[in-house]
Structure formats: C-alpha cells, structure tokens
Amino acid sequence: MTNILIRYGETGLKGEPVRYKFEKLLVENMMLAHKNAGVSCLFDRQRGRIFASTDSPDRTMEILSKTFGVVSFSPVEECPAEPEEIARLAVSLASTRLKQGMSFAVRARRTGEHAYSSMQLAALVGERILEATRGLGITVDLNKPDFEIFIEVRNNRAFVFTENIPGPGGLPLRSQGRVLAIIEDRKSLLAAWLMMRRGCTTILVNQSELTPKEIELLKPWNPWWNGFIESTDPLELLRLKNCAGISLGWTLEEFESREKLLPGVPVFYPLIGMTKEEIEGRMASLFG
Description:
Layout: E1 2-8, H1 16-37, E2 41-46, E3 49-54, H2 57-64, E4 70-80, H3 83-95, E5 103-111, H4 118-132, E6 139-140, E7 147-154, E8 157-161, E9 165-166, E10 178-183, H5 186-197, E11 201-206, H6 212-215, E12 229-230, H7 234-240, E13 245-247, H8 252-257, E14 267-268, H9 276-287
Helix pairs in contact: 1-2, 3-4
C-alpha cells in the first residue's frame, strides 16, 4: 500500500477540543469521499498530521486535492527514525532523480525527542547523497535547488518524500454553520465554493439558467452532495433549512446597484473584494 502524509493548516491552530472536532470532521469527509468513489483507504490520525494508506494512490490524491481542510499532501516512504536508516532511504529515492550536474537540498523536521537535531540529520543525509552520487557533479544548493528531498521524523517513525502537492486549504466541510448559496449565474458557483472552503454546509438554491451539469461542477468538492433546490423564495428556505445566512455571488458593482435583501438577514458576499479578472481566473482553474 502507498502511504500519504496529509497536512492541514487552520485546523491545527485551534484549541484542543476544537482541533479534535475538526480533525474528526476532516477524516469523516475524506472517508465518505473515498466511499463515494469506490476507493479503499485507511486513515490514521496523529497530532498535526493524518496518514492515509491506499492501494489506489492516484485516485486518493485526486480526492485529497478536492478536500477542504487539506493544505498539502505527500506520498511517503517510511523507515525507523534512525539517522543511517533515514539516509539509506533518502539515498535510494535521490539516486533515481538526480542527474549529471544537478543540485539538491535536504529539508528535515522532527516531532518528539531524538539524539540528533533536524540540522544534523539534514547534513548527514546530504553527505550520504553526495557520496552515493560522486562523479556526477552533484552539488548542494539550499536556496534554489533542482531537487528537494524532505524528511519528517515523528517520534520513532521517519517519512521521506520528494513532493508537496497542494490541497484547497480552508476548513473541513460541516465545521461551520449552514448557508443558503443562491445560484444566479456561473460566478455564484465560485461564491458557493468559497463558502464551502470556509467549512460551511451550503444549501444550493438555483435561480439561474445554468444546467444541472454546470451546477454539479461543485459535486466533486462535496462528499455530502445532496443536489440543489429550485426556488424563488430564499427567505422561506432560510427558515425551513435552519440556515445562518445567505451567500450571493455579487461583485462590488452589483452590491452597489442591486436591491438588497430584507434587513436582519445575514448575507455573505465572498466575491466582493475580487476583480473581474480574478473571478474569471479562479473559475477557470476550478471549473474549467
């Protein structure tokens, strides 16, 4: 099985009870996404990190790239937290990647008590890599290397990897309140996406001419997908669905020119600080 180290950001900044809740929600979201995709995957929660073990790494990484709360992830190789063991594994990975005249850097970090520092470990691994590639003109460059090898030591386990793949970041779905996301046009999808990224459970209300297929561009990002509602009365839905507020995909120009909803209703405008170019660029990267 392939092991994947999963990092989260804001969740780790919370107090202990809240962090535990958010980590639990994040794992539940990932488990459901894998179940929906028919992919087998096991998750191991540790402080500050989550590990996934899967026989379908490409499909798991595709799911992780669309899981809110995941900042980044890396396929890893594991070994005991002994410096020479780590060095042997690092040399094995680096030897297949380093070519004539390339430069490299070793990035090491630790959690727990060890007889060595992160800097000492990085120096030892770098030395072993130079010895193994002698004659190829390989050099160390800590500023702009051609190749990086990362080491994360967690107590008696060490993980070596060469990739940091970005996730969408944000907070886990369902960690915040329920919001009605009014879909009036294509950019409203981006507004709904941004509310989801902040951990909100979004109830999609379609008031547009978008096709179901277009609205379902949000589906891969939400393992709890429950379709959308056709409605012209969002205020009634706000009460029936017990939502904390309404999300609209209005720009600043629309906010200044359009009639506002009833006072007393919390309304979120995720796009209000974005330019037209920023909105179009973000939509293209997310939805094509």
